[in-house]
Specification:
Layout (H helix, E strand, L loop, with lengths): L3 H9 L3 H8 L6 H13 L24 E4 L8 H4 L7 H12 L20 E4 L13 H17 L6 E5 L1 H14 L1 E2 L12 E6 L7 E6 L4 H6 L4 H14 L11
Parallel strand pairs: 1-2, 1-3, 3-6
Antiparallel strand pairs: 4-5, 5-6
Amino acid sequence: MSTDYPVQAAAEASTLTELKTRLVRCRACPRLVAWREETALAKRPAFADWEYWGRPVPGFGPADATMLITGLAPAAHGANRTGRMFTGDRAGDLLYATLYELGLASQATATGLDDGLELYGVRVTAPVHCAPPANRPTTRERDTCRVWLAREAQLMQTTMRSVVVLGAFGWQAALPAMQDAGWSVSRPRPAFGHGVRTTLAPAGGAGAEVTVFGCYHVSQRNVFTGRLTPAMLRRVLAEAAHNAGLRVERPGPG
């Protein structure tokens, strides 16, 4: 499969369901395909009885969401195992617990596709949809995969008002994707930082503005070192939810 597949397949998708169907077939990046499939076969001893997903991981959440959260890429033994973004790893434990506190998720835990989790007004995705070795996709892999995020955002343009970007890598991928999807991004591009926000106007003058919020990634390293605290994450998500017109029912302290 050539690197042309994502461009053509994403463009042909007229709904998020169609986008998912095409996305999970993608094999455009040989290194990522080899790694995700090798990991799915080798497994981690704690998950020896799991049948790993081992494919590109699609976005998750309602098609009419007003808020989009995008991270980096699936974890090898997290989303690459479960088939859902930020599910089955420590980063997801914090993210979904915080969304639950805010009243934006039906439960605080995310363990697998059949766990009953629902998101309210929020969709979760990533700029790279395959688990990369050492959690580090190459620039070329990021750019090849960007069309999926751009098309996802484009298909949400009538409802989406907020985008929360977790981490500097995600920020570098998300802003060009938003530009490709039809929003204007200033030059030079706004720099990433925790709590940074930038409002993007529709490039053609018609449609709605979208505000992009920067947040440190919910990685174990950031949480363990205190670079990102639960209160810091909660504050950014609450601000983005308010901007998106979502009611925050359980804001908690901080």
